[in-house]
Amino acid sequence: MPVFLDLDNTLVDRDGAFSRWANQTVPAWGGGEADVDWLVRADAGGYTPRSDLARMISARLSHAPNELEQLVSIMRAGLVEHLECYPGVLPGLGELKAAGQCLVVVTNGDSRQQRAKIEHTGLDTIIDGAVVSGDVGFTKPDPRIFEAARSIASDGGIAWMVGDNVLADIDGARALGWSTAWVSHGRDWPEPWAPTVAAEGTADALDLIRHGIADAR
Questions:
Q1: Strand, helix or coil at 36?
Q2: What is the distance between the alpha carbons of residues 101 and 94, in angstroms, rounded to a whole number?
Q3: pLDDT tens, position by position, for the chain (217 residues)?
Q4: How far apart are CA 59 and CA 132, in angstroms?
Q5: CA-to-CA distance for 21 and 32, rounded, in angstroms?
Q6: Contact present, 120 and 80 (Cβ < 8 Å)
């Protein structure tokens, strides 16, 4: 059975990495604690376009680089440098892999940036492949990105999708009839329908999938 995996804030702590980078970098650019808080809010979990965020930083912080492309590159490199998988993710993926499951990352974002995250965190040594929206031209929840991921999976059977975003990950995969595992990070489920399973953290979600697959055999 293939297991498809969101990257940011599912396998890796993307928001935590951005916050750590901001706390390290903003003081060097002439900012204080309030500016760090502002930057984390302005980032909006990565949904603010990097060029727009670079303009905002340049306007607010007097010692930030003025060249916007350079500033975008600094942000992207700094994020990767501070990035880590959530606790238990690598062992959990390893157990699924050892059980014969095909693991494919399905992620929205710039291809070079997303693949750098995968390599930096060691995910590239475990997963079987990755589909990035920047490569294929569609973003989750567009069914075509899920279909592209399914096309590179090495096995058939019931597909699982693991993710933290209700619309992009869970509803998008649900529309294709896949089983879904929602990573809540302590949030309440907002919809009248429910995912197949839910867990507060990713390691627990992977464990639920592993046991579910084993019970189905």
A1: helix
A2: 10
A3: 899 999 999 999 999 999 999 999 999 999 999 999 999 999 999 999 999 999 999 999 999 998 999 999 999 999 999 999 999 999 999 999 999 999 999 999 999 999 999 999 999 999 999 999 999 999 999 999 999 999 999 777 789 999 999 999 999 999 999 999 999 999 999 999 999 999 999 999 999 999 876 555 4
A4: 31
A5: 14
A6: yes
Within 10 Å of residue 99's Cβ, how many Cβ atoms? 12
Cβ-proximal residues to 30 (8 Å cutoff; 6+ apart), any chain? 61, 62, 63, 64
| Residue 85, both tokens | 């998988």
Residues in contact with 186: Cβ distance below 8 Å, sequence separation at least 6, in sequence order: 200
Rounded-to-5 percentages of helix, strand, coil across the chain: 55, 15, 35
Task: Tell me 54's DSSP state.
Answer: H
Whether 202 contacts 90, CB under 8 Å: no
Do 181 and 161 meet the contact criterion of CB atoms below 8 Å apart?
Answer: yes
